Amino acid sequence: MIRIAPLGRALAVAAAATLALAACGGGEDSAAPSASAPAPAASSAAPAAAQGDGVLTIGTLLPQTGSLAFLGPPEFAGVKLAVKEINDAGGVLGKPVTEIDTDSGDTSTNIASQSVDKLLQQKADVVVGAASSSVSLSVIDKITGAGVVQISPANTSDQFTTYDDKGLYFRTAPPDVLQGRVLGDLILADGNDTVGILALQDAYGTGLADNVQKAVEGGGGEVVEKVIYDPKAADYSADVAKIKEKNPKAVALIGFDETKKIVPELVKQGLTAKKVKYYFVDGNLHNYGTGKDGFPKGTLDGAKGTQPGAQVSDDFKEKLKSVDPGLKDFNYGPESYDATILTALAATAAKSDLGKDIAAHLKEVSTGGEKCKDFKSCADLLAAGKDIDFDGASGPIEFNDAGDPAEATIGIYEYGADNNNKNTSFNTGKIAG
Prior knowledge:
Largest sheet: 7 strands, mixed
Structural class: alpha/beta
Oligomer: single chain
């Protein structure tokens, strides 16, 4: 377990400084849904799942629209890169892997439910997504109830650790108990003993806010105000006013795209980055810039944030750009790549594309065997009768019995005057519980 220490102790089990990694589809096989028509109820009966037809079909349920749309491009790129490498190496079960891309939208729509229906109708064996924990919670029963594996590259809500998912839900991002510890201790280590928290009202926001509060208070600090806000609100002046009234030294902002509205309100009410220290999380750790869609120069200067995931090498960034030359952010691209590779290896090991067979082999291909780092070398070892341990682009992924990574890395990032962020360190260790 990583135990992030209070003031005076080391921030993590291991840390390495770097200047890599900016802040966290399509194609002829894509099948993106239309967002214009009314969506059916999320509880509608699920279509029949694929029944081992010998073709591994991977469906994506990732954000093309909505409050996490900035995460979509790197996630789609990660899946597409993985599928290309898998098929270049001969595919799975002797046949090319099929990819079907859909939009997850966000919790303000039923796009995800429509997309899942489409993926199940097209006999997806694996669903990669969603990015949002709340969106995944809205469709997990439909996916796993159909006997299909769901593997998310970005879900971090603690709720999934104990969710009754029939053994079919996995994730390549760590639960927020870890990110909360890292962020809480970072805030304290920077000398902030009074903290205000602004968190969106959903499973991700409230769960991460609770974990940050535990870390701050466990380290001797005080959360002077915690405001859970409506992400659909048109105005955040009252929410910010509650924080301002308590005069904290730091503000932890746990949210998504609504951050673009909250930050100007903080500035308007005098809570500038020069007066209080801003702290972001993976949901809003974005390169905002200073253009017409960004913030005025210096708005975020000195702000910091946390992001699950190991250092992304320049080589891997270039590989992602080879499938999407326009990429600027790389958040959860490695985790999406690893999720796709792992499910393909599990299907290879199982000699089956049936969901329950893939799920039964995911832990096996991620732990305890001979190390390998790409699909071809791993598949060659499996063909030779060897046990394998895939270590991916996002770091060592060893699934525990809950389908969570047993080991994880959290990166720490800092913003400059240009409102873009750079990595300053990584913290890696085992997660227990």
